[in-house]
Automatic annotation (TrEMBL):
Protein's recorded name: MDR family NADP-dependent oxidoreductase
Keyword Methyltransferase: no
Keyword S-adenosyl-L-methionine on entry: no
Gene3D superfamilies: Medium-chain alcohol dehydrogenases, catalytic domain (3.90.180.10), NAD(P)-binding Rossmann-like Domain (3.40.50.720)
Keywords: Oxidoreductase
Pfam families xref list: ADH_N_2, ADH_zinc_N
InterPro entries with a match to the protein in the record: ADH-like_C, ADH_N_2, ER, GroES-like_sf, MDR_fam, NAD(P)-bd_dom_sf
Coiled coil stretches, renumbered: none
Organism: Streptomyces fildesensis
Residue ranges of every copy of the Enoyl reductase (ER) domain listed in the record: 20-339
Length: 341
């Protein structure tokens, strides 16, 4: 059956570099001529794409130390997307109708090099789950923090895309007690009632160190940190002997209106690191290429067994995507934020 394609496509572009944090008015939804695939390319109709906080860092920075290219005024945004191949060369590896994941989200049709597409199978019960950033949480907890039976684990930014999976994963890996941090009582209640967190500390509700002391009077063995800043300092104060800290994000710097988003300086007690024998390491998926396949397999098993969920908020329509990014930066959503086309 031949699919009739439209003559135009829509995409979200950066209209202007913001002073401070990006807002809805810094983006535009543009209409462009539908591209046609050339040799080695496929045309994908995107079905879903994920809104991720790293976009804030890519907007207006020089990109010297970033793993992804920076965004300039007029550029189309990008990020993980799942979609369906609607046009492909006859001699290619991909066929019309194949479901794929790729990095050219933020548009309804994407012209992608076939080698940059990963075909989807039924490992995960819902294709949208392929947009989960859970591999970062899983990789950090298994490769760096080495969660063990009986560990007490603290997850910062626990209501975010990574944190909302990190706590339940830590429990499945054997953690005895899982504590999270978040910014609102409503999110805290959901972390406990829906995701099985034992306790939650609230940013802006008094001393984080004091709250963490009450939540974990024995101290913590593992930190999965997505925030840095004062939350990393509080975690260091609660660390037990030989604690393992895995850093997967630095939202305190990324989401600061006073910074560009590519730095998150914090003053830590090096003496305590030495005396307590604390390991402090940053996690990069590129350093652990085996994690993605391992994670996807376990994620699928856990989803089907009902032992894990994929917490996410769905936003309908590409026109609402720029607002969704602003709301993500403002901390208004729970779990990952996925735009449904």
């Amino acid at each position: 059956m031949t699919t009739t394609l439209p003559g135009t496509a829509r995409e979200v572009r950066l209209a202007a570099i913001p002073e401070g944090l990006p807002r809805r008015e810094h983006f535009t939804v543009a209409t462009t001529t539908l591209p046609q695939p050339g040799p080695g390319q496929v045309l994908v109709r995107n079905r879903h794409f994920v809104v991720f906080p790293g976009l804030r860092t890519l907007i207006g920075t020089d990109g010297d130390i970033l793993p992804l290219p920076p965004l300039r005024s007029g550029d189309t945004l990008f990020g993980p997307a799942v979609g369906e191949v609607v046009a492909a060369p006859a001699d290619g590896l991909l066929r019309t109708g194949d479901a794929v994941v790729h990095m050219l989200g933020w548009r309804d049709y994407a012209l992608v090099n076939a080698t940059d597409c990963t075909p989807l199978d039924d490992t995960l019960p819902d294709p949208v789950a392929y947009l989960s950033p859970g591999s970062a949480a899983y990789g950090a907890l298994t490769r760096l923090a080495d969660v063990r039976e009986g560990d007490i684990v603290f997850v910062t930014g626990a209501a975010g895309a990574v944190g909302s999976l990190a706590g339940p994963i830590a429990r499945l890996l054997g953690a005895k007690r899982v504590i999270g941090s978040t910014s609102s009582p409503e999110k805290a209640e959901r972390l406990v009632s829906e995701l099985g967190y034992d306790a939650v500390v609230l940013r802006g509700a008094g001393s984080l160190a004091a709250q963490l002391k009450r939540a974990a009077p024995e101290g913590i063995d593992v930190l999965l940190d997505t925030v840095a800043g004062e939350q990393l300092v509080a975690a260091l104060g609660a660390a037990r002997q030989g604690a393992r800290f895995a850093l997967v994000g630095a939202l305190a710097g990324q989401m600061s209106a006073q910074r560009k988003g590519d730095s998150a300086p914090v003053e830590i007690d090096a003496f305590r690191l030495v005396i307590k024998g604390i390991s402090l390491r940053g996690y990069s998926g590129a350093d652990h290429p085996d994690v993605e396949k391992e994670w996807t397999g376990r994620f699928g098993d856990w989803l089907r067994a009902g032992e894990l969920t994929f917490p996410h908020t769905r936003i309908a329509g590409i026109d609402r995507a720029p607002q969704a990014l602003q709301e993500l930066i403002e901390g208004k959503h729970f779990g990952a934020v996925v735009v449904e086309l």
